[in-house]
Write a structure and sequence with these properties.
alpha/beta, Rossmann fold, about 20% strand
């Protein structure tokens, strides 16, 4: 009888599978809090590449039996992966669902455990990533490889886009990783490289607002840029950025207007080597923001609605892949 009572007592003391699971979840959550990390937002899967997170969104109807295009979206300086993935600010996951491409949001270098307020080493800009001379090109290559290892990706349709410092990073990838990326599209971030020798002709799209107060359209850092001027650079102008790519891809010197509407225009350079295209889209207003974005940070000028950057970028990527 005493043995039976002892056995019953032990049973009541032993945790059930459900209790074990709950305890494990609490422990994991506490460890995550101590690391300063955040759980991935709904609809995003988290990979870890070279000690940094990469959030991946699979489009609705993703079929592992069919290779899908891949877009890497690089956040701006002072941003982070979750911020770039927020559809209220960029709408990129929604666009991926509509068009059927996989989209990934890599995290730049940050001193903070959770990865916030990060930057990219795009050459002359920006912040700690530049100052530490981090090899973010190698990181981008590794991110693409990690995604290809886990998901079915069409290697001939890998693209990069980014905002501000992330856009500058896209320009650098066009210079140094044209073997991986078929085309790049930069928003509000001009070319920050000191030298550029792409391994092959590459399609480049640049989108910029004339009244950008961070990366000034005609060159230089505006009043809205980082408070610490040493963390940025004397930004290259939009015209100079386009001239560089026209020369690199050996395009015709004069562009053709492809869109002309109230508040925005686009133009394309033809005759480029390898049949690639170099294009520019300009909005009259919108400041330092993503055209078509539903919302912006508090205190910033509303994004221009004369152009939907997501539509323009994906159309450009599709054309580049033909």
């Amino acid at each position: 009888m005493r043995g039976l009572l002892l056995a019953l007592a032990l049973v009541t003391l032993l945790p059930t599978a459900q209790a074990k699971g709950a305890l494990r979840e609490r422990i994991n959550a506490r460890m995550e809090q101590r690391r300063g990390g955040n759980a991935s937002p709904a609809g995003l899967q988290e990979l870890h590449v070279q000690g940094r997170k990469v959030l991946v969104h699979l489009p609705a109807g993703y079929d592992a039996g069919r290779p899908a295009p891949l877009v890497l979206a690089f956040h701006g300086g002072g941003g982070w992966a979750e911020y770039m993935a927020d559809d209220e600010k960029y709408g990129l996951q929604k666009k991926a669902d509509e068009a059927g491409f996989v989209i990934a949001f890599p995290n730049g270098y940050s001193k903070l455990p959770g990865g916030k307020f990060a930057t990219w080493n795009a050459g002359g800009c920006c912040g700690d990533a530049r100052d530490r001379q981090l090899d973010d090109v190698a990181f981008a290559r590794a991110a693409v490889a990690a995604i290809q290892d886990r998901y079915r990706i069409d290697g001939s349709r890998v693209f990069a886009t980014g905002m501000s410092n992330g856009g500058m990073m896209s320009h650098r990838l066009a210079c140094e990783a044209a073997d991986v990326f078929r085309a790049v599209a930069s928003v509000a971030g001009t070319d920050a490289t000191a030298s550029c020798t792409p391994s092959r002709p590459i399609a480049v799209l640049h989108i910029h607002a004339k009244d950008d107060d961070h990366v000034l359209f005609n060159g230089g850092a505006g009043a809205g840029a980082f408070r610490d001027e040493s963390k940025v650079m004397n930004f290259v102008s939009v015209p100079e950025t386009m001239s560089r790519w026209v020369q690199r891809d050996h395009c015709a010197a004069q562009p053709q207007r492809t869109l002309d509407k109230a508040g925005a225009y686009c133009e394309a350079y033809s005759g480029c080597n390898g049949g690639v295209s170099v294009q520019l889209c300009v909005t009259e207003t919108g400041g330092h923001s993503w055209p078509g974005a539903p919302s912006v940070r508090r205190g910033k000028e509303a994004a221009s609605q004369a152009l939907d950057a997501n539509d323009v970028i994906w159309r450009f990527f599709e054309q580049a892949a033909r």
